[in-house]
Amino acid sequence: MSSKLIVAALQRNMQKALKQGKLNEAGEILTRLKQEDPLSRSTRGFELEYYLQTDRLVDAESLASQLHRMFPDSARILFLCGKLAYRLKHYAQAEAHFRESYRLHPNPLTQLWLGKTFTQTGEWDQAEATLLAVRDHYQAAHLDLGWLYERKGDWKTALAEYEAYLQLYPHDEFALQQQMRLKAKMLEPQELVEEVEHLAELGEAAPDSVFPEYIRTLFETGETERARNEAQQRMDLLEPRLGIQLAWVCYQAHAYDLACTLFLKFLERNVSNFKYLSALEAAGSKCHRLEEIVQCYRRLAGQNPKLHGRMKALLRRVQSRMR
Predict the structure, then answer these.
(1) Three-state DSSP class for residue 56
(2) In terms of C-beta density within 10 A (0-12 exposed, 13-18 middle, 19 or more buried), how is residue 220 classed?
(3) Exposure winner among 89, 169, 207, 312, fewest CB in 10 A?
(4) Which helix or strand (DSSP H or E) is residue 112 part of?
(5) Do residues 238 and 258 make contact, with C-beta atoms less than 8 angstroms apart?
(6) What string of DSSP letters covers 277-319?
(7) Closest CA to 276 of 32, 61, 31, 89
């Protein structure tokens, strides 16, 4: 088989592996591609996409900067750079990349990501128009519209979008959780507490998707001790996305010790999230756990060298307190 045919076959297999989330297989194919066709735009793009899917954001950031300079006219490279910037919560940069990618190659998927970005930057009219325009192409836009309407405080319309998606995909776990969480949010505080108490009487725990909202309600209605006890009992059982939601609930309720524990638990997947790190450090400062955070930063600094600077700043704060 000729070299060109081998490369073409590897590219097809790589695309398929990434689409199906077979990341071990994708890593092996990428190794072959880098041997057969190391410098091409296609191979480098696959490498960046692989880093994004495997959460190697530091490697992705370094590569994206290089590829943006090398291939400024590649809609695909710009799109991937936009996705990276979005993951890093650099939304203005993400918007610029997506806009340029769309200018070079109009594509509904790029529009979808532009709509998501507009939601994050608070450009809600643009977000709504953009997401509505692609809803027929990408049904996942229902979920993004649901989150947009939640941000706007239009819970009824948000719920309608989640339910429209569930009509298409009735067993989608994320959509079911969003629906259940929002329904809990729409209840009066006492109704939500009574609903959870009724489940407890039946020997059932509150669903994971409802639990952070339940804890928020307990804090807001003055049942602080109960909120703390229930959060402590459940915190090790929640999957990361809901555990992080609970961390923010505790942080906003000034339960800084619980927030710090939860933020630390999920730190490894948030080492590039500036807002997350700042909240962790603020909570750690309140409950005198900065040295513990420094130790965690030291362990994870290989994943994000920027942690070295944060670690030094925290050490100075610890030393100043000891004087």
Answers:
(1) coil
(2) middle
(3) 312
(4) helix 108-121
(5) no
(6) HHHHHHHHHHTT-HHHHHHHHHHHTTT-TTHHHHHHHHHHHHH
(7) 89
Q: Provide the percentage of residues in the chain whose pLDDT is more than 70.
A: 99
Determine contact, residues 224/240, Cβ cutoff 8 Å. no
Q: Across the chain, which distance is largest between two alpha carbons, in Å?
A: 72
Q: Give the integer Cα–Cα distance in Å for 232 and 226.
A: 10
Average pLDDT over residues 10-18: 93
Tokens of 128: 């709504």
Angle at 184 between CA 181 and CA 188, to 5 degrees: 155
What is the per-residue pLDDT for 273? 86
* Higher-pLDDT residue of 206, 242: 242
CA distances in angstroms from 283 to 178, 203, 233, 259, 297, listed in the order given: 27, 34, 20, 7, 15
Q: What pLDDT does residue 1 have? A: 53
Tell me what the pLDDT averaged over the chain comes to.
Answer: 92
Query: Contact 14/45 with Cβ under 8 angstroms?
Result: no
Residue type, 13: N
State the pLDDT at residue 197: 84
Q: According to the model, what pLDDT value does residue 80 have? A: 97
pLDDT attached to residue 95: 97
pLDDT value of residue 283: 96
pTM score, whole prediction: 0.80
Q: Which run of H or E residues covers position 44?
A: helix 41-53
C-beta atoms surrounding 60 within 10 Å: 25
Question: What secondary structure does DSSP assign to 155-208, as a single string?
Answer: HHHHHHHHHHHHHHSTT-HHHHHHHHHHHHHHS-HHHHHHHHHHHHHTT-PPPT
Nearest to 94, CA basis, from 71, 68, 56: 68
What is the pLDDT, as a whole number, of residue 323? 61
Encoding tokens for residue 257? 């010790």
Cα distances (Å, whole numbers) of residue 36 to 31, 50, 131, 302: 9, 17, 40, 29
Three-class SS state of 263: helix
